Every structure is written in C-alpha cells, then in structure tokens.
C-alpha cells in the first residue's frame, strides 16, 4: 500500500483500515488450557482420537431387548447405568434396564423408552414398541482421525465443549496481543477523585479497559502527565513487552502534538497523523518493527469511535480473525439529520433485530466530547460525505460495537 504521507493529507477511514490490516500480522501461536482458550483463534485442525461416540449407547432411559425378539413379556436380567461396561448376549425373552448414555451390552438391540414400559417385579412388558432403536451408534458422529474442527475459527463455548470431549485440552491458538495503554493529560484525575477547577475525571482508561476485555485482554495501564521526559521513560520501559500501544490524548495537530513527538523519539514511524472522518480526526497510526501504536484523540466519543473502528481492526488482525468488513446493513427507524458535513461521519446509534432485520435508532450527540450518547450506544452508523439527511426506513451501513467471540 502507498501510505498516506503523515504531513501532507488526512487518510480516509477506508485507508486507515487497509493500513492497519497490513501492519498487524497474526501473532505467534501458543498452547493454552481450555478455560483460557475461549474466543481465541484455533491454529491447527483438531481430529477425533477415536470413533465418536466410541461405543453404542442408549439415547433414552428404557429397556434394551433384541431387535428380532417378538416376545410380549421380558425378564429383566441386568441393569446398566451410564459408565457401566457389561457386555452380554441377550437371549430371547430377556431385557436389560438401561440408563441414558449407558453402553449397549451387545449388537442387534433396540431400546424401548421407559414411558412405554410396565414393570412387574422381574418382568417388563411394553404398551408401545415401534421401529425406533433409540441408540447412538459407534462412529455415527465422527470416525477416528476425522477432522472435527478446522483451524482459523474462534473457539466458542460449543467448540470448546467438543474439544474437551475428544481430550484436546491444550489447543494451539493465536497469542493475544500484549497491550500498553497510556492515559495522558495534566487535566485528568482518577474517577474516584473530585476534580479541581480545570480538571476532569479520566473516563478513557475505563473505556479502553472495558473495550479490551471483550478480547479477554488485560492491558498494562499507566497515567502520565504531558511531560515528554516522564512519558518517554514510562513508555520505553513498558513498550518492550507490548505488541500494541494505545496513547489516549495528546494527538492534536500542531504544537500540542505530544503523542507524535513521543512515539518518534522512541523509534516509531508515523504513517497517519489525521483522518478525514469524524469524530476522531487527530488519529495517529505508527509502527516500530512488529509493534503498532495508536494515538487516540482525548475526547471520549472520538475515543469510542477510534477504538471500535481502527483498534478493533488491529486486534482482529493480530489474533488472526479472517479479514472481512465489520460493516453490516440495517434499516433506520428514525430520520437522521446529517447536515451535509464535508467529512464521513460515524454516528452513535442503538441497533437491534426486528423480524431478522437489523434496525437502527440514531442517538443525539453534540460534539466529540459528548459522553451521554455512550450510555446506550451499541453501534456506529456510517454517514457518507455531504449527506444532508438519511430517510427513515432507508438502508444504512453500520458497525456493531458489541464484539462477538
């Protein structure tokens, strides 16, 4: 890709996303235990070590009898619970009480459901007996060495359950990126403190931490003043163990471009220093070897947009998710007045499903520093350049900010 010159022009959102995917290759693989594998991307095929199921077993509670036995009354000669192994050859007129999951004692059997049986002492008869065998046969799900899970998919709960069932307790998955987050600004104080005149509470650190938690990433978070010497010391000592660096604030263009100077001092190349999209114009994207850094605008709504557009793309690339557009299409439930802005806009919204169709309700926001819309926003509507108004019931592109594993 011909990178946009950081000093010449702003990059479009499309250009930023394309660049991010190119400079964030999948990380190395590692083996992790199943409890730590949820959401991770599988890097090798998983095969069945034996037939699945490994033996014929009953799919119901009931009585096993010979399939060819036409007797009207059967003598119960044994009981088999799940976990028992009691092979035997049933004779005509014999039945075995068997629990769901119990191993069938032999071949050529069927299981009659308990609901259709009448027990009298050691004998049983059936009020109903059809051709249904109620047996899960050996190998009916998969045969030995058959591939059950292909690489390149996220490990969801059902997949993890399957891996556990075949003894794959240390799957090979893509490493999670190590993330360093620096919250900058002389005006910010921790949320639990009461701000003095000229100060504000730090909301971005909480926003970043909650956002990364969707990937089960626990970042290293530092709060530093806008002092290059102090920030450089903090960054240099922590960046060595990081794949992705996020710097909140200090990304404005001009003499207060603190983040750009900081990243350049420790060897990062600035690929992008601003975008044509809003909110989030003063975005920095930088690279140093295999490390990638984002300078995120300090205003919270701009922060939210940049995290869900660009940082999300970086995380998806790092963990090896298939490259695909994160944008979906949906229908507007209300009219959106965009006022013909000259910049592409990512508008906070609520989305849901109605009769299988995504529906969106635009939310009010006044500026990139407006946090109020984030209380209910779970989507960003893509508003094209110069769009005056998007009509109710019209189709729009949007990105969900709810990350699925």
The largest sheet, given as strand count, sense and whether it forms a barrel, is: 6 strands, mixed
Strand content: 25-35%
Structural class: alpha/beta
| Widest sheet: strand ordering | 7-4-6-5-9-8
Taking all Cα atoms into account, the compactness measure Rg is 30 Å
- Distance between the amino and carboxyl termini: 29 Å
* CATH class category label of the largest domain: Alpha Beta
Q: Percent helix among the residues?
A: 10-25%
CATH architecture of the largest domain: 3-Layer(aba) Sandwich
Rounded mean pLDDT score: 91
- Output the number of helix runs: 6
The count of strands amounts to 28
Give a description of the structure.
This protein has 405 residues and is α/β, with parallel strands linked by helices. It folds into four domains: 13-26 and 176-319, MoaB/Mog-like domain (Molybdenum Cofactor Biosythetic Enzyme, Chain A), CATH 3.40.980.10; 34-50 and 142-174, Molybdopterin biosynthesis moea protein, domain 2 (Alpha-Beta Complex); 57-136, Molybdopterin biosynthesis moeA protein, domain 3; 327-400, MoeA, C-terminal, domain IV (Beta-clip, Beta Barrel). Helices cover 17% and strands 30% of the residues. The protein has a six-stranded mixed beta sheet, with no helix packed on it. Strands 16-13-17-21-20-18 form a six-stranded mixed beta sheet, with helices on both faces. It has a five-stranded mixed beta barrel with strand order 22-25-24-26-28. Helix 1 packs parallel to helix 6 and helix 3 packs parallel to helix 6. The radius of gyration is 30 Å and the shape is elongated. The protein starts with 12 loop residues before the first helix and ends in a 5-residue tail after the last strand.
